[in-house]
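Quick start: read one record
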Amino acid sequence: MTHLKILSTSDVHGYVYPTGYSTPNDKRDFGFLKAATVIDTVRQEADPDDIVLTIENGDWIQGSPFAAYIAKHDDAPRDLFTQLSSAMAYDAGVLGNHEFNYGLSYLRSCEAARQYPLLGANIQGGQRAGIVDAPYTILERGGVKIAILGLTTAYIPMWEAAGHIEGLTFVSAFTTAQHWVPRLRELADVVIVAYHGGLEADPLTGDPTERLTGENEGYQLMTAVPGIDALITGHQHREIAGVYQGVPVTQPGEKGVAVGLIDLELDAHHQVVTHRAELLSTAQATPKRALQALTTATEAAVQAWLDQPIGQVTGASLVVTDSFDARLHGHPYLQFVNEVAMDAGQTDIALTSLFNDDVRGLGTHVTMRQLLNSYGYPNTLVVERLTGSALKAALERSASFFTCEGSTVKVNPAFIYPKLQLYNYDVYSGIDYTFDLHQPIGQRVVDLSYHGQPIQPDQELLIAVNQYRGNGGGDYPMFAASKIVREINVDMVALILDYFEHHPVVTGKPQTNFQVRA
């Protein structure tokens, strides 16, 4: 018997080193260098007849301060990420949605050192050159023909700035797989699907776990596309490993916390006779020294850059000590981010999110490290014209973030399972509003006014919002590209830096424009 071991990384988000960058000495149990050691160990421990394949499943080049440094400095080695993945001899790669965050030219420069095929069967258009090599690849190892089909979430145009994906079309991963998998079954002994997307339904019951938008089509792939021997997923940052509906599936979390392993046992005719899936934790692994040598100089430059001062804060503190309280009662940090957005967008209404519970806001002496750890997304800004009724609908979506258990307010489980979505709760400035949590979801906005006057359903208002939300991301269909009246094609971190340049000393202000009744 031959074992085919399929290893995968996904959603590493530029976390090469085992650090969250909160301080120069911050240490964490994740990172690509640790994942590389785990991959090496599997290869070294494999039996002589075993076949080991490795797939990079997307969202690799964006997300960490390390990645932000490379994107923002022309003299930084943009191809460093693919130097690393090529040095690890990956057999194939797939693009994630965040690969497009800095545009196609930047993406091409990042992929310049790549020595493995980049697969994207559902990415179409004339701009594919230098972005996608092929829909699939077929490898022959030990006499076994192995097909790898690459797919990415088709929902990218809902979030990404149009200029970043110009000339590209993203079609359904499910319908694309329906087309390709039967053909690959005729060409290969084993068919692997590597999909930068997640599961839209409970893998055991099939019950939907989210609104069926096409963002995640993994459950459809494993249940309605016969012939898939192994399914690698990602995008949702979940930790999943198991055999579901007869198909072994992995999803290895984020930041390199784990490596996915699917083990297929093949008989003498190269047919799969048994299969299993597991996640290999990287927590105890030692970072791979040979790869670390490629990145030492860049990491030192990153750490020096992060400690550069960018401004000062007086008045109310912008340090976040209690994330839940900040969402429930507002916070000067959120007010400040909204003020930056209103200033850049020339509006007097804005909204923002406290993206996750690691956000600590800004200290008295603000550094780049504090800023990037608080606003880690390269979101640009748009101004949209919304009616009063659409604004109320958006607020109702945010109001559904909370639930009451007796007198205790908690986060609605729908924002936690199956994927943590704290970033889908927004806090507004420039309007006054009240949520009454005793009311049913959808009827919780009980007061809503602008400049002291009740907002009317047909009243039109200009709102500054990041482009992810502005395109409807996070299940906010009342926002849409068709409603955009202005685009500020500068990411929010750059806008905040510019704000500090013009206001070297910022006065923190309490956020008092909304309340949540429980």
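The chain has a mean pLDDT of 97.
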